[in-house]
Amino acid sequence: MNLKIAIVGLPNVGKSTLFNALTNGGALSANYPFATIEPNVGIVPVPDERLDVLAKMYETEKVVPATVEFVDIAGLVGGASKGEGLGNKFLANIRECQIICHVVRAFENDDIMHVAEDANTAAKVDPKHDIDIINTELELADLETREKVEAKRKKDPNDEHIPYLTEKPVIYMFNVDESQLIDNDKKSELAKMVAPSQAVFVNAKLEEEMAGMLPDERKEFLKSYGVEEDALSELIKAAYKTLGLQSFLTAGKKEVRAWTIKQGSTAPEAAGAIHTDFQRGFIAAQVCKYDDLVRLGSEKAVKEAGLMRTEGKDYIMQDGDVVEFKFNV
To answer: In whole angstroms, what is the distance from residue 13 CA to residue 187 CA?
Structure first.
């Protein structure tokens, strides 16, 4: 399955800067409302160090990671549900995504323009107020949608259900000052504000500075600020956890690849993520754990240790399973 994340927030909270950092997409980032007019879209690989390890083991240069698609939605404002700012057009873009990443400003900067005040008025740092504005607009948009759906169903009871925006899970990404990245008290305060939704903390400018760095360079750069993981890794982990997703792996001479599936998926359902024919003609799955494979060094060694299993249709897939499917169509 393809993971699609909508990045939303008020204008000038660092959305497009963050989008650029996540995707290296070069989205326009500027300090004025609606710098993003059409939604920017970027598809990036899901970071997974296991793939490089397996690629060396199987001596293949073809590595195919799972991917995530980010959609940078134009900055919403109060009244968006009624067409203010860029209005309903962008609310429609959100409907196409499985999860919302709500970027919230928590950093101080007197040069940031206030979208709802005089242009010379500095925007206040008020995360709860900003979150409430976006949530209200999503609720109002859903109310209007609900009225339209009910009107259509009076004419046609079988009319297709439109997904409501407020039903989509949300991850809150707080764009914080550098000092707040390691301020556990401040982060705890912000996390409690949005619980039970997950909170992720980033500094968009630092993320942007890392563009073009190699993985090891990024790690060292972040470590100098007391941070373990970059925004992409943090956000994808939060999205996988929120949506109940996991990855299984396939490995061989031709390629090493990660596949995204729902937690609780059966072996045939996982096979279907590769191709519908695999699910329809499923016979069995040859499965081993990634950790066992790496520890022992080869499939042969895993088999000799009795750790390669043949599983049937009822097997529930686990994160990190390395699988070869047997099928007949």
So the answer is: 17
CA distance 22 to 34: 20
Is residue 3 within 8 Å of residue 98, measured between CB atoms?
yes
- Provide the 10 A C-beta neighbour count for residue 130: 20
The single-letter DSSP state of residue 6 is E
pTM (two decimals) = 0.84
Residue 68, C-beta contacts closer than 8 angstroms, at least 6 positions apart? 2, 3, 4, 5, 43, 44, 46, 236, 239
CB-based contact 51:63 (threshold 8 Å): yes
- Residues whose CB is less than 8 angstroms from the CB of residue 293 and which lie 6 or more positions away in sequence, other chains included: 54, 57, 299, 302, 322
How would DSSP label each residue in 153-221? HHH-TTPPPPPPGGGS-EEEEEE--TGGGG-HHHHHHHHHHHTTSEEEEE-HHHHHHTTT--HHHHHHH
In whole angstroms, give the CA distance from residue 27 to residue 22: 11
Tell me how far apart the alpha carbons of residues 21 and 113 are, in angstroms, rounded to a whole number.
Answer: 22
Spell 76-111 as b/e; 16+ CB within 10 A means b: bbbebbeeebbbbebbebbeebbbbbbbbbbbeeee
Decide the pairing of beta strands 170-175 and 99-105: parallel
List, in order, residues 6 or more apart from 224 with CB less than 8 Å away: none
> How many CB atoms sit inside 10 A of residue 283's CB?
14
* Tokens 């060396």, located at residue: 56
* CB-based burial label for 238 (10 Å; 0-12, 13-18, 19+): buried
Strand segments, DSSP code E, in 27-139 are 40-45, 63-64, 67-72, 99-105
Specify the DSSP class assigned to residue 316: B
- Own/partner contacts of 79-84, CB < 8 Å, gap of 24 or more, are 79/137, 80/137, 80/141, 81/137, 81/138, 81/140, 81/141, 81/144, 82/140
Which DSSP symbol is given to 82? G
Mean pLDDT by 10 residues, the chain (329 residues): 89 85 57 44 88 95 90 66 50 86 87 57 82 89 84 75 88 94 94 96 90 85 91 93 96 95 97 95 97 96 97 97 93
